[in-house]
Amino acid sequence: MISVTWISIFSVLYIGLLFVIALKGDKNKSNRFQPYIYSLTLAIFCTSWAFYGTVQQSIHSGWLLAPTYFGAIILMTLGWRLMARIILTAKRENTHTIADFIATRYGHSRKIAVLVSVFSLIGIVPYIALQLKAVSETFHLITGASNNAVFWYSDPTICIAILMAIFSILFGTRNLDASEHHKGLMLAVSFESLVKLFAFIAVGIYAVFFIRDGAFDLYYAAMENEQLAHNLTNYQTPITYLIHALIGAIAIFALPRHFHAAVVEYNSEKDLYTARWLFPLYLLITNLFILPIALVGFLNFDTSYFQQQYLTLWIPLASDAKGLALLAYIGGLSAGTSMVIVASIALSTMLSNEILLPLIIRTKLIALEEIKDLGQFVIRLRRISIAAVLVFAFLYYRLLTQFNALSEIGLLSFVAVSQFAPALLFGLIWRGGNKQGAIWGMLAGFSIWFYCLVIPLLVEANWLSKDWMLGVFELAFLKPQALLGVEGLDPIVHGTLWSLFVNCLVYLIASLYYKPSFEDISQAVKFVPETSVDSLPQRKLLPPSNHLKAQKVSLGDLKSLLLRFLNQSKVNLLLESHSNPITGRLIDSSPASIDILAASERLLSSVIGAPAASLLLIRLQDTPTDNYHNFNVMLDEAYEVFHHNRSVLSSALQSISQGVCILDKEHMVIAWNDKFKHLYNFADDCLYMGAPIEQLVTHIAKQGGLGRGVIDTLVTQKVNLYKAALQHTSVHKNKENQFIEIEGNPMPQGQYIITYTDVTAQRHHEVELRQNNEQLEQRVLERTNKLSQLNQELKRANNNKTHFLAAAGHDLVQPLNSASLFASSLIHRLARQQEKQPDQESAELSILAKSLEQSLENAEMLLSELLEISKLDADIIQPNCHDFELEQVMTPLIAEFIVIAKNKGLELRWISSDVSIHSDPRLLRRILQNLLSNAIRYTPSGKILLGIRRYQGKLRLQVWDTGIGIEDNQIERIFDEFHRIDNVSSSFEKGLGLGLSIVQRLSRLLDHPIKVSSCYGKGSVFSLDVPLAKTQRVNDQDDNDFSRPMIENSSLIACIDNEIQIIQGMQSLLSDWGYQVIAAQDAQSLLFKLKGRVPDVLIIDYHLDHGVTGLDTYQELSKVWLERIPCMVITADYTQEVENNINKAGLILLKKPVKAMALRSQLNQMCQTCIS
Q1: pTM exceeding 0.90
Q2: Span 656-758 CATH architecture
Q3: Of 272-281, 485-494, 1055-1064, where does the model show the most confidence?
Q4: Residue 793 and residue 786: Cα distance in Å, rounded?
Q5: Could you confirm whether domain 878-1027 is CATH 3.30.565.10?
Q6: Structure confidence at residue 811 (pLDDT)
Q7: Max avg pLDDT among 169-183, 1035-1049, 1061-1075, 1154-1168
Q8: Cα–Cα distances in angstroms (integers) from residue 643 to residues 464, 577, 637, 653, 886, in the given order
Q9: CA-CA distances (angstroms) from residue 460 to 254, 400, 410, 481?
């Protein structure tokens, strides 16, 4: 624990730091980092509920991504156009609260404004109380102080509320205009967003990597816990998650504080563009550690329900990490204060503008005429409203929050503000929605919200009888948490579904039933511009209210009223824009026109809200307001639209980087931008509305902007082009050595637009580019020659390497092959001698012979794999992929390995299939051969399965074994060269560590992804995904059975090899197997020894003496024997050319060094074919 004194000091210092940041932010006028500040300001979405409550929520739900975060992310990434439309509409209509926005959509309805304001207070005050509760309870948790204050004045929470109120008042009510930005306040809020993010990440890292041994350790520990495993794997119904996500999405635009941050503080389109990626990224980073913190708290600490609510603070506190605990406390304080400050400002604005000020004006409780500075009066009213909001929140905190968890209170408020969504969203997409629909829809929705969610809360607090939970009049279908018999849903989900459903239904019914007023239609046109009025149902309209009346207010009175709320410059600017076009003056005694009254109302609404502004003007007129004609209202709106469009055009021209000048059909200037004015240094008496084009062109020519020549001639030529309305482009160099591109284009209705672009940099780049191109051509020629020489040298080196590998492979493999054959023959003979006459010496010799054979096999394998890896790395091996039946590879492969497995006491299982695949059969066999060899090597007993199954449009080949398995920390390294499993005992035959390296290279070469999974001590499985052939052949043959014994007979085998040692070894080995063997070094010698007999099988080496190949010899012998007998070609040449030649000849290929079992299996099949 940390002492109360220190925590109090740190809290005050931190809030003092926020004051300093806010003050500096107000003084700093730069907008350099405004988009990032705006995005971080939106992080007030992450309150103390996000900092503490979502952690508690994740323990019970097991959600990896908090659903409210998911909803907010979806809205900002996929639904950002909705946010953009809300922001731009609010800016256009000069609305600055959610109540003002919805009321403006429905004809500036004061009833709707009051309704939204009251419901916002009811829904958001509990949420503010939630922040007070979180800050207070974490203060007591970190200090260990008692939290049992009996009297309100002894509760330290009141100090926190007072500090928040002071901060909100100082920095939230400094400006009278509610639409003005609070730069200092938003800078402080964005700083708090960074602090709470940093604190949350720090606690998450500490919990996962310092208390636990990382994410995997935490996951496995959680899965071993029965309760956590159940929560993590048995997810709630999708409807629960989706409804929570919907609530989160709606909160982004419906929460008053978020509407304020997103709309009022919006500065430019860069703000929303940045927020589209930065705000979701902020939420995702925050979410990374929500579930891990919850799991660590549950697994490592024996926490009470209270401590579970604050695991983010309790974990470092219980671990005696006081520094981290202090950081977590400050993070939670930031999360709570930022929300309270912005929410209280937003609510106070609604409370003062929509309720208190209109009430004062209507009831005349205060004589506004006697107040000299009404602006300061409005500011004081807002400050009182801030204090009132926090008082209400403190009372709620004292009375009810002790009965609810953080997550429950947060969601309760979210559902409340969600009731604004139907009126807001329907108002943006459907012109048929009207004021009555919005009012009745919200009333119905809030009633259901109160009945289904608030009533159970009051029952839990013992404020209501428990009989309420049985339903009104104890009717089962009216139970608050099982309305109309809908049971089994989460209370929040149940309340949200029913309240929004009833809200939408009543909105639609009431909008269709009640006749729309004229104000409804006129505002609908503004809010739903893409839908034409003609598409609306032809229904009779109610007459407009027409609260503005001409001839009833003098300009002097109007000016006096405006000056009490606005500064002198704004009022003068307004009146000058509506001055007499002839005299340019306004007479105070003259009556104010409708357009001046409308503009005044619009300007006032930015300060005191639309309802209050309307009431002030009505009182000023003091006349009835229900006899105005539709035509005049339409005319006024068209006038507003005209001025708005002109403002938009002016802004667009100023934002263009080029100089622009627009001429009317009389060739007079009607528009320009500052870029054009500064480009040619125009004076005000030269460039003005209605200036003739000749005057402008003459000035430009004198500035040297039309090039060299007689000025009058240059001017005449250019003016004639403009008057002819011809499209043209020209570039001129002025006195300042600037190149200006002048482009003229005709516009509709006879207008003409001229653009002036500074292309100096482009011209310089063109000159540099031309020079560089000339130099580049010479460099390219030189480099091309060098590259050609290097390419030729590379080809020669590559060919030399290929020839070296082939020669080295052949020369090195030949003696190993002959030694291997001799060793196999020796083992076989010793085995027969042992059967006839067992003795100790023969047994020892057998052991030595087997060791010799094993050593030779290891040497052969190492040499073969080294050569193969060299070829793969040198890109010598190229795949030859085509469609073929899988059985072509599997039949000889299984025949070979089933014997090897049987000799080791293992069972190799394979179910044949007639499926066709697309691959290289040679390389695929090599992959499977290595995988089977590894499986047999590391399986002491049990079974090996080579299985297939279709997976995602491919054929998945899998090698399963029941061997020793692979440890998790070894799996990523097994494909490294010369890596061998460390846990293999001496009783196992260790590999060389190259087999899986070859497998990985070949799988990449063939684009056949390979995967491995293993359970240490139980076995492993390697999976290879192979594309299926486009066409499949139906095969009715029975599955091959490789369990039958090999056929040994007295078939005649002929062998040809130019190496005498290989001939002797082959003759010895095959004789031991029971075959008749005749061997020779060439064809003539073989024919002489055969003495007219024809062998059953021919085994021949590929490379013979004097450049003769085995294929040449086979063709020669076939002519002598007048038939093609089964032939097996053995070679140590691994090149693709040799393999292609043998396959083309239709012969069987075996590569040296030849393994005895592979040779025996192949001979068995060939002899069986001969017999059949």
Answers
A1: no
A2: 2-Layer Sandwich (3.30)
A3: 272-281
A4: 11
A5: yes
A6: 64
A7: 1061-1075
A8: 57, 10, 10, 15, 78
A9: 28, 9, 17, 13
